[in-house]
Structure formats: C-alpha cells, structure tokens
Design brief:
With 209 residues, the protein is α+β, with helices and mostly antiparallel strands. 26% of the residues lie in helices and 31% in strands. A hairpin with a 6-residue loop joins strand 8 (109-115) and strand 9. The protein starts with a strand and ends in a 6-residue tail after the last helix.
Length: 209
C-alpha cells in the first residue's frame, strides 16, 4: 500500500486508488487496515472461506448499468477455487430467466459475496467473467453438489471468474442484524414474520392495487 501526495488517497494492492471521493471529504479517509485488506488475488484465508461456503449472492449489471442480485447455493465447495486468480461458478438449472447471464453477455463484470452459516464474517470477490460450457465444468471436475435435488438439478453452463479484487469483510453487518442468532432463527421458523406467498398477494398482484 502506498499513499499519494493527497493524504486521504491511498493505493491498494489492486492498483486502484481509494479515499479520494466526495464521501471521504465529508466523512474521512479509510483506515490503513481497511485498505490493506483489498487484494488482487484470493489469499489462502479467502480460498478456504469460499471452499467452506454453501451460499453466495451474485451481482451483475447490464450494458446500461441496471443491476441484478441473485442467490446461489449448494454444498460447501460448489464454487471451485481454481487458483489464486480464478473461480469456477456453475449454473444449476432454475427459472430460465437467465438474468445474470444476459447481463454478463452485455457487461462481463461480477460481484460476489460468500456466506458460511453461523460465521459472522463474509468474503467479497469482484472480477471479470467468461461464460463456459457444461463440458468445461466437468473437465475441471466441477459436478453438481446440492443438499436437496429435484428433476432440474443439473448444470447448464458456468462462469470462469478472473479475480480482480477480493477481501474478507468484517462481521459488523451480520452482528447488527443477528442473522445467525439461534433465537431469531427459531422464532422465524416457528412463525414466519410475514404472510405466506399467494396468488393474491404476489403472483397475480398488480402495481397500484
């Protein structure tokens, strides 16, 4: 990490400057430790975290900048760490909307956040995507790894992600939310805090009605 002549601007190991925005002018510069954690590769810690993660959120944007975020899951290791610069992320057959893949066709950049149940830390990965075939997944020993299966439990294609930035994220958000709190989980399982999804309140509901 290096610091420029402007003391609020710092250069990360990814080669990107941080701390020079109007928000930093209003609220202060990032700490040295926050800047140091931004890496251009998957560190050993990040690799092991991803191997243990059964859940991730995938963020993409189309050519006009419109965003989409999609939940993805499987058994730990369903996303394969190829090496410190690459991940293979399989596409399990689903609703056939292909929103993430259509976005990648227009804009090949992606953001991922990985979760491990009960662990308050998360891992974030940003990078560039090449869409690969099912055969390429199998050649790289990526097979369907799901706890629960159905007649659509198959790979259609996948993403080879070239890592541009990765880092472990502090536990504050999950601590703030009590996301993994056993009492909160038990309470919600006993009685959902919202009504069941129905034709009336969801599928056939129209805007403004």
């Amino acid at each position: 990490m290096t610091t420029t002549d402007n003391s609020t601007i710092k250069m990360t190991t990814t080669g990107q400057p941080v701390g020079g925005s109007r928000f930093n002018e209003s609220f202060g510069a990032p700490s040295d430790r926050a800047v140091l954690k931004l890496k251009s590769h998957l560190t050993p810690y990040v690799q092991e975290f991803i191997k243990a993660a059964p859940f991730a959120v995938m963020a993409t944007t189309d050519g006009k900048g419109r965003c989409d975020a999609s939940p993805k899951g499987g058994k730990p290791g369903f996303v394969k760490v190829v090496d410190e610069k690459h991940l293979l992320f399989p596409d399990v057959a689903g609703n056939r909307l292909f929103q993430s893949y259509q976005n990648i066709d227009e804009n090949p950049y992606i953001g991922l956040i990985f979760f491990v149940p009960g662990i308050p830390d998360t891992v974030r990965v940003n990078g560039r995507v090449k869409i690969v075939s099912k055969d390429e997944l199998e050649t790289n020993d990526v097979h369907v790894a799901l706890y629960e299966t159905d007649d659509r439990s198959m790979h259609l294609q996948g993403m080879l992600i070239e890592v541009e930035e990765s880092y472990g994220h502090c536990p504050r958000a999950l601590n703030f939310s009590h996301l993994w709190d056993p009492e909160e989980i038990a309470k919600n399982r006993a009685q959902a805090p919202f009504p069941e999804r129905t034709d009336e309140n969801y599928y056939h509901h129209e805007e403004g009605s």
